[in-house]
Backbone:
């Protein structure tokens, strides 16, 4: 048993630290932003539910990894033991935290009202956090997330670049991240880019790898607890519904209770400092952070760059002749079929535009839908289920990043080779 | 568009942001990481090659070692066989030498014994001879009575071998001495004078001398010639025979 604890200890500790850091990080974010003098409010229950979900899935992952590692070197007895003891331990942990922070937590009389994850306000448009700042555009929560994604990607990249050497860095501390980064780069470069792009792999690789890293970071960071759940509580001016708020220490939280009894609520919560003390007023949450991939500006921008670079590589590989693909006037000389071919070549242009749309809306749609799904699941049943969907969303985030990168690579490969093929086909037909 | 949150300013901001990230990553990160990975692969390949070479070297060393071991074993057997052979040889040699030595010592001892025996035998013979002579002397002197003396004197000229008497012939008989054990009678003297003058040129006188030590018989001296027909001479002959 001692051996078991010694082996399992790190994983449990990691889970505990993750949980604590989520909570502490949430509080820190409150206090930090609170010093800015803004109206600081959070939907605590949603945050806790999402934290539970993520921690749960991470623990399950850790368990799976631990089982694999264990299975690799230990006897069957130990494997049975861990199936019988460790698995229930972890599942129990997840279940317990889910119950406490989720279902059970709903019954906690915090500030006189039940604490429960609220149904999120579903908005496609990123919410502004400030007044107009850049050329009349306010700072939105996705822009804040963008800065974080940049920091993570650049930080990881520069760390890996600094540690890069013929010998792999030791697998401890930041070395783990460096190893992960090197593993990613090697897998993408050796197994994908070289196969798809051939001799152009070295030149094209930074673009597609940047796309992959950015999209992956944008997708995964959106799953961190705090995204979508910590923000400022605003009166639901323009929005439908709205919720009553409760105050708990320095925190202000939305409750799942619709703001139905205005006079009563106002009477209880003078501390809210709202100007309309007597009027029935619901509150909504404007999160400080929202997944970057749920901002269409990000996905469209990325898609524009990707498609533009496809054209650039096409021209670089084939010269100005690349554009014959779009204006196949040479085919006109071949009579009726030639005219058809010319019209088809015009369609190519439309397909390039369609690429931008498919790129951007695929990514946006998947991630946005994922977040809506998570929010609704936490609202409906904050008990184990969010953990399952967190696992799903982690997978979806990875897949979407991979698809974006892969399609970019394939389009570049086609553009650099496409003309010759089309030409020879034309001769044959 | 506004409902979807698409805004040219954000769009441009996102594009610029991505271009910036792309630029920084492709400048600062990917070349270094890819280079490091390349180096690592080269290092691993080199390591594998080195390991292979080392393995080959080890195998050849093993074979060499085996060969040397076998050679050493064969050499050892050869040396041992040689040593055994030499030892055998030496043993045989030493054995034969020892045998020869023993033989030689035996020989010497035998010779010594032989010599000793000879010596002892010689001594014995001398003593026996002496005893025998003494006895013979006694017997002879006891046995020689008057008549035997006379017969011995009478037989002198017939008993002495003619060759000896022939030597006397022609000699100048100016001084002839005749020795006898008992005093001769005149008849015997006449007889002797006559016998002598038959054989030699008897010029002078014949001197007769009596010497009992000759025991019996006669000794005739002519000049420096002696014809010994005495018993004593015969005893001497016996003695020589006994001592022989």
Residues:
């Amino acid at each position: 048993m001692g051996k078991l604890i010694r082996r399992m200890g790190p994983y449990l500790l990691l889970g505990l630290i993750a949980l604590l850091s989520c909570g502490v990080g949430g509080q820190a974010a409150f206090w930090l932003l609170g010093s800015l003098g803004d109206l600081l409010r959070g939907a605590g229950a949603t945050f806790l539910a999402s934290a539970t979900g993520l921690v749960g899935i991470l623990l399950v992952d850790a368990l799976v990894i631990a089982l694999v590692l264990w299975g690799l070197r230990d006897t069957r007895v130990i494997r049975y033991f861990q199936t019988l003891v460790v698995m229930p331990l972890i599942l129990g942990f997840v279940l317990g935290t889910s119950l406490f922070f989720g279902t059970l937590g709903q019954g906690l009389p915090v500030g006189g009202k039940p604490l429960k994850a609220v149904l999120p306000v579903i908005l496609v448009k990123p919410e502004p956090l400030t007044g107009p700042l850049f050329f009349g555009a306010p700072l939105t929560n996705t822009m804040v997330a963008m800065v974080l994604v940049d920091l993570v990607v650049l930080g990881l990249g520069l760390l890996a670049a600094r540690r890069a050497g013929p010998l792999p860095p030791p697998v401890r501390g930041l070395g783990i991240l460096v190893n992960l980064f090197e593993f990613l780069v090697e897998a993408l470069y050796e197994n994908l880019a070289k196969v798809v792009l051939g001799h152009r792999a070295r030149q094209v690789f930074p673009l597609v790898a940047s796309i992959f890293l950015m999209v992956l970071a944008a997708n995964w960071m959106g799953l961190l607890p705090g995204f979508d759940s910590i923000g400022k509580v605003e009166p639901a001016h323009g929005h439908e519904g709205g919720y009553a708020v409760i105050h708990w220490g320095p925190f202000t939280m939305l409750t799942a209770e619709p703001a139905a009894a205005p006079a009563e609520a106002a009477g209880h919560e003078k501390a809210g400092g709202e100007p309309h003390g007597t009027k029935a007023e619901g509150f909504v949450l404007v999160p400080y952070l929202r997944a970057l991939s749920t901002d269409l500006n990000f996905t469209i921008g990325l898609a524009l760059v990707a498609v533009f670079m496809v054209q650039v590589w096409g021209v670089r590989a084939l010269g100005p002749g690349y554009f014959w693909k779009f204006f196949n006037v040479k085919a006109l000389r071949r009579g009726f079929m030639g005219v058809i071919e010319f019209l088809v070549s015009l369609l190519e242009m439309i397909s390039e535009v369609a690429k931008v749309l498919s790129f951007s809306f695929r990514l946006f749609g998947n991630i946005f839908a994922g977040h809506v799904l998570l929010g609704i699941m936490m609202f409906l049943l904050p008990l184990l289920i969010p953990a399952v969907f967190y696992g799903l969303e982690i997978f979806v985030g990875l897949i979407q990043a991979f698809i974006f990168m892969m399609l970019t690579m394939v389009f570049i490969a086609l553009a650099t080779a496409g003309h010759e093929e089309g030409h020879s086909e034309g001769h044959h037909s | 568009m506004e409902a979807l949150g698409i805004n040219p300013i954000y769009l441009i901001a996102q594009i610029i942001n991505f271009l910036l990230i792309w630029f920084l990553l492709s400048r600062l990160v990917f070349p270094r990481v890819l280079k490091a990975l390349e180096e690592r692969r080269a290092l691993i390949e080199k390591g594998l090659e080195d390991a292979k070479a080392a393995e080959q070297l080890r195998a050849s060393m093993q074979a060499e070692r085996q060969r040397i071991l076998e050679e050493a074993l064969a050499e050892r057997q050869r040396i041992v066989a040689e040593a055994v052979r030499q030892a055998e040889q030496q043993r045989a040699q030493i054995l034969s030498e020892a045998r020869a030595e023993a033989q030689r010592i035996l020989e010497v001892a035998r010779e010594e014994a032989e010599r000793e025996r000879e010596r002892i035998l010689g001594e014995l013979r001398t003593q026996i001879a002496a005893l025998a002579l003494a006895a013979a002397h006694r017997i002879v002197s006891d046995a020689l009575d008057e008549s035997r003396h006379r017969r011995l004197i009478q037989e002198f000229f017939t008993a002495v071998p003619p060759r000896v008497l022939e030597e006397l012939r022609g000699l100048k008989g100016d001084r002839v001495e005749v020795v006898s054990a008992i005093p001769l009678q005149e008849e015997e003297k006449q007889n002797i004078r006559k016998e002598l003058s038959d054989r030699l040129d008897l010029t002078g006188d014949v001197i007769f001398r009596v010497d009992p030590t000759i025991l019996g018989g006669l000794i005739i001296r002519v000049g420096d010639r002696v014809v010994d027909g005495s018993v004593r001479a015969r005893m001497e002959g016996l003695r020589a025979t006994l001592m022989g």
Observations:
- Residues 146 and 187 of chain B are 15 Å apart (CA to CA).
- The helical segments of chain B are 8-143, 146-154, 156-159, 162-168, 186-199, 231-243.
- Chain B has a mean pLDDT of 85.
- The interface with chain A takes residues 2-7, 9-15, 17-22, 24-26, 28-30, 32-37, 39-40, 42-43 of chain B (CB under 8 Å).
